[in-house]
Amino acid sequence: MHQFLNLKKSVRISTEFWDVTEKAGLFGVTVDGIGDGRHRVLADGHEFVNMSSYSYLGLDTHPGLVRAAADAVLAQGALNTSASRLRLHFGVLQDAEAALSDLFGVEAITVNSCALAAWTSLPLVASGLLTDGVPPLMVFDKNAHFCMNAMKPSVADEAEIITIRHNDVEALEDLCRRHRQVAYVADGVYSTGGVAPIAELLRLQERYGLFLFFDEAHSTSTVGRNGRGVVLETMDGFNDRTLIITSLNKGFGASGGAVFLGRRGAREWVDIALRSAAPLMWSQRINTAGLGAVLASAELHRSAELTGLQDRLQANIDLFDGLVDTAERGDGLPIRFVQVGSEAGTVELAQDLMRAGYFVSPIFFPVIGRGRAGLRVMLRSNMTAEEIEGFCGLVNSLGRRESAGAGAA
Amino acid sequence: MHQFLNLKKSVRISTEFWDVTEKAGLFGVTVDGIGDGRHRVLADGHEFVNMSSYSYLGLDTHPGLVRAAADAVLAQGALNTSASRLRLHFGVLQDAEAALSDLFGVEAITVNSCALAAWTSLPLVASGLLTDGVPPLMVFDKNAHFCMNAMKPSVADEAEIITIRHNDVEALEDLCRRHRQVAYVADGVYSTGGVAPIAELLRLQERYGLFLFFDEAHSTSTVGRNGRGVVLETMDGFNDRTLIITSLNKGFGASGGAVFLGRRGAREWVDIALRSAAPLMWSQRINTAGLGAVLASAELHRSAELTGLQDRLQANIDLFDGLVDTAERGDGLPIRFVQVGSEAGTVELAQDLMRAGYFVSPIFFPVIGRGRAGLRVMLRSNMTAEEIEGFCGLVNSLGRRESAGAGAA
């Protein structure tokens, strides 16, 4: 018991900080969207720009995608077939999965969210069904996303499990040497910043047959040809020793999540998944609104518009990097962690920024170690230079005050 | 290992039957919806009526709900806020949860599906956070839905766990006598037919403080005042020893799922859940299309239209019960299991029915024991008498042939 989960302890540890966050007005804010990552607080009309939005290309308010979502519901006259997809599904589901598969050169199955993609595929990998019947040693990166960590009890019921330090290729190689079959579970791009050592991991795959399981939720769309993300961009074509889960919300701008398993045209794994992976058997998948947006976004990902948005995002990242120093500076990715230090100071800073018209997520224990609290900034293609400069100016001036305060404490 | 899960074994056991089902053309059929539970196969234009649709009140194609879904996307101009709900959420999320809470006299939290409602709340109950800090003995009914069984590894990491025979009140009472804190996990209405002994369970709750956890996915909307389902209909007001998860798709006709925890106005549990239950913290919730439909459906549930639909459903159930004998006859619920016997015979019968214009799900091992295969019929308010009579006539004539064949085998 309590090998992986301990909700009572988690709540005890984090409850005070959530209280502080809530009192600061930064918890569960109900808003209206006014476009381009800007919002209006329903309670008092205060307007702000979201500096922690994961819609990296601004596709969440893209008029074409929004229209496509509404049109798909009306065209089908329903949100769902009211049956398991294993029985009946609409053409738009088939079309959306084909479009994703073609776009990324993989076989894609869609699910309701990236978390459900983890639920669908982690026990499947652990069972050994994708590795010649041999359950692999399941090696989790310590920083792998919570939605994958939350699956550990199920994974441990199918295979041996171990957690290693973040990006510890050496430890992983050692395990590869000592075990017949190893699977490594990691994020491609980490939700609090940073990237997996993908080239080195592919080298281990080449040498030892290492199975790679990546969460690309923060990478899809934002980087790579056609927005294929850091993993596919680094690989020389997809292979049958790799599985990717990702979000179709975040950068992609639609709804739901996806599992990429097998090269385009290799349906064996998809068939196994459909017949065995629990969430795929149940009633709900992405509704027709989400599927309409997936189709429109897949088309956009093939166009020059995608490249233009990626370029604007890179320009905004460069602008930010020139103004605020972070550990992630220069990595070409949109996530920046501005370390502040104390939890109280971080919340106070976020509160001041909100008053000045900038929402930013304060990040703290248990998401990150104690005393290393800070702000998770997520850059978007549809931020103006004025917004970024204004925000960075405030972070630098208010943040210095915090540092001084922390030093004096 | 393999205490709860064994995907390799599950696939080995069920693969041949899925092959048979697929060959029979009853697996993953891609269709267009043509209204009122009728579909057209995209591949060949064949039209059929779905006799296994869980849209018990026909709300999946209700023009008002479909329109509300599309309108909500357009009104908000986005499918999601691109932030965790713990940070930012749209007014339509707040409105939808308030409408559900008012409708059913509970505190309702929405999630992406009923399966995610199980993921959200089963570890929470097991942790003891809702039972004065004491982790209860978690007692699962053997027939509790797969989405709850799939959570057993996580539940077992928080509390002691045991599975008892279906509807075995005596065994449950014995456990209540011998344990300080017990929680019982069951369906209100079972997905293959039948109902929990709710009055007796409430008696155990009264006597021993038993915590009750119900999946009401197949019950919400179809029965009870305002469609509140069998559990709330039997209870004398909601209480703090009961938690309900349900679907907002199925009978309700929208998207997503919900957790009912606490009487309307008692927010303590909601606050605990929001700060601790993993799926609630992540990026995706019901998209604005689904939330628009939830709001419209909640309004419909307060109207005479709901009562009219429930009455028509009951008339259709009565019509069916007068024509085909099942174990469920007379229970007032829309799920009927027509036992056939052999798996091959069941698939053949389903195939013949499909040719004649009726889709019905063949149910077999591992969903149900070997040699007890049959058809899962789900009645709807928007079936015509002709459809029901035609279907029942074929089941009786073709089914007799199967029985004769089975006898001879």
TrEMBL record, chains A, B:
InterPro entries, per database record: Aminotransferase_I/II_large, AON_synthase_class-II, PyrdxlP-dep_Trfase, PyrdxlP-dep_Trfase_major, PyrdxlP-dep_Trfase_small
EC numbers, comma separated: 2.3.1.47
GO MF terms, alphabetically ordered: 8-amino-7-oxononanoate synthase activity; pyridoxal phosphate binding
Record-annotated Aminotransferase class I/classII large domain positions: 48-392
Top class in the EC scheme: transferase
Cofactor(s) annotated in UniProt: pyridoxal 5'-phosphate
Annotated keywords: Pyridoxal phosphate, Transferase
One of the GO biological process terms: biotin biosynthetic process
Catalysed reaction, written as an equation: 6-carboxyhexanoyl-[ACP] + L-alanine + H(+) = (8S)-8-amino-7-oxononanoate + holo-[ACP] + CO2
NCBIfam families documented for this protein: PRK07505.1
Protein name (record): 8-amino-7-oxononanoate synthase
Source organism: Actinomadura citrea
Lineage of producing organism: Bacteria, Bacillati, Actinomycetota, Actinomycetes, Streptosporangiales
